[in-house]
Design goal:
Blueprint (H helix, E strand, L loop, with lengths): L4 E7 L7 H12 L4 E5 L18 H11 L3 E6 L8 H11 L12 E6 L7 H14 L9 E3 L15 H22 L1
Bound molecules: ligand FNR.
Ligand FNR binds next to helix 1.
Length: about 180
């Protein structure tokens, strides 16, 4: 039987009605059987402080264990002030330490930015990619995923109502599955 890859999904917004969380759940529903997508919560992570490593917060341990046990990582994020939301950057930092024990190293990644605006979170998307270089994460390059106009994208049940976007998300998650299989071969 072919392996099912466990994918840690990190959502850059903490709010309940988040468009990005809706998108992450929609991606999970469209994912092929070779991927199991699980949202890993980041809202309870204390701000990263190296001094706290002597008495590691439980939330950091939980997060490191969940991401560390995954085969790949998908980031679905809004853009805050043309960059990565603080909560998501904090999660990246928490996962990257203690030094030499980063949970990100070598993990295949993909990023999708989602915004009501037309630019589609390009700034956040590329600032994340900058961190992936240092974190040594091979990231899916194509298709790039800057999803704009997201305010009118979902129905009450959270389904994507724009057909072209649904097709694009399918292409994106299929490409990610192929990318993960290549990286893990
Ligand atoms: C925003 N928003 C925003 N949008 C954008 O396209 N570029 C930006 O730089 C910003 N900056 C920004 C900063 C802060 C602090 C907030 C709260 C919001 C708007 C943002 O895209 C919108 O609120 C989304 O709905 C946030 O994503 P979720 O929470 O719906 O997933």
């Amino acid at each position: 039987m072919d392996k099912t890859f466990q994918v840690a999904v990190l959502v850059g917004s903490l709010r309940k009605e988040s468009l990005n969380r809706k998108m992450a759940l929609a991606v999970a529903r469209l994912a092929p059987p070779s991927l199991a997508l699980n949202i890993i919560e980041i809202g309870d992570l204390p701000l990263y402080d190296e001094d706290a490593e002597t008495n590691t917060p439980e939330a950091w341990k939980r997060f490191r264990s969940e991401v560390g046990g995954s085969d790949a990582a998908l980031f679905v994020t809004p853009e805050y002030n043309r960059s990565v939301p603080g909560a998501l950057k904090n999660a990246l930092d928490v996962g990257s330490r203690p030094y030499g024990k980063s949970v990100w190293s070598g993990k295949p990644a993909a990023v999708m930015s989602v915004s009501p605006s037309a630019i589609g979170g390009f700034g956040a998307n590329h600032h994340l990619r900058q961190s992936f270089v240092f974190l040594d994460m091979p990231v899916l390059q194509q298709p790039e995923a800057y999803v704009g106009g997201a305010g009118k994208m979902f129905d009450e049940a959270g389904e994507i109502v724009v057909e072209g976007t649904r097709d694009f998300v399918q292409t994106f998650v299929d490409a990610f599955a192929t990318w993960i299989a290549r990286c893990k071969a």
